[in-house]
Amino acid sequence: MLRAIRSITPLPISHVVYSHSHGDHIGAAYTLGSPDNITFSYTLRVSNQSLELDHKGANHAAGNIFVWAPLQKVLMLVDIVYPGWVPYYELGVAQNIPGYVKSHEQILSYDFKHYIGGHLNRIGTREDVLISQAYVKDLFNACAQAMHLSTNPNSTLYAPTIQAAVGNAAPGNSWLVLDTVNNILSSYANNVTNEKWKGKLAGLDVYGLSNAEAMLEALLIDWGINGAFGVTNAPV
Predict the structure, then answer these.
(1) Chain segment 19-76, per-residue pLDDT in tens
(2) Does the pTM of the predicted model rise above 0.70?
(3) Bridge partners of 44?
(4) What's the first-to-final CA gap in the chain, in angstroms?
(5) Which residues pair with 140 in a beta bridge?
(6) Number of CB atoms found within 10 A of residue 99's CB
(7) Of the chain's two ends, which shows fewer C-beta atoms within 10 Å, N or C?
(8) How far apart are CA 25 and CA 84, in angstroms?
(9) What is the DSSP letter of 227?
(10) Measured distance CA(54)–CA(65) in Å, rounded
(11) By the 8 A CB rule, do 209 and 216 touch?
(12) Helix, strand, or coil here: 199?
């Protein structure tokens, strides 16, 4: 990184802007000096260039920020949208999944031409963000559908699938029963989503199931859609 900077300019490094605190994105920052920390929102101006930095709430990480270059129409938000690919493991290991879902709408509020997602092999476009948003919405709906079917004794998901699986679990092992049912529901949601997105996004075979598992858990703890073991408190 230092060699790349020196190949462009002999000037000293005046500012370091990073997306969030995860080591795979900022772990070597100590090599660039020790800049002061600044809270958000903040507009950084250097000569005739500017970056607008905004924290809009937790999503992938508690401190994940939007980095907007208005002159170049470039937006960076790391670990949310992976252009051409499904999200990394468990929706990019999102710390706040409702915030992760909402961040797609927040991204689209910018008039950007180029999107920097922080991983994989190309810069994104507005269409990539719309595609990611549609995938996440379909995954949410598939998980919600699985939850609702798990409460309906007349559904094929409930009987005999869930009944048989619970009956085969070790008696008295509540965690095993819960895990057995959740595996059935997340697999169902993954299969429904993959059927629609096969051939449209890469990596479904690698991280589709873990994304479904993460979304299913978020429906339970964040949206109050409880499925077989509780009461449905929120609309789909």
Answers:
(1) 887 777 877 787 877 666 665 789 999 999 999 999 999 999 999 999 999 999 999 9
(2) yes
(3) 51
(4) 46
(5) none
(6) 20
(7) N
(8) 20
(9) G
(10) 6
(11) no
(12) coil
Query: With contact defined as beta carbons under 8 Å apart, do 117 and 77 qualify?
Result: yes
Q: What's the angle, vertex CA 196, arms to CA 192 and CA 198, rounded to 5? A: 105
More confident residue, 153 or 44: 44
Residue with tokens 């995938």, as numbered in its chain: 135
Q: 215 Cβ partners below 8 Å, 6+ apart? A: 91, 97, 136, 139, 140, 143, 189
pLDDT digits (tens, 9 = 90+) for 117-132: 999 999 999 999 999 9
pLDDT reported for residue 117:
97
Hey, what domains does the chain have and what are their CATH numbers? 2-229 (3.60.15)
CA distance 83 to 86: 8
Closest CA to 205 of 192, 186, 190: 190
Length of the chain: 236
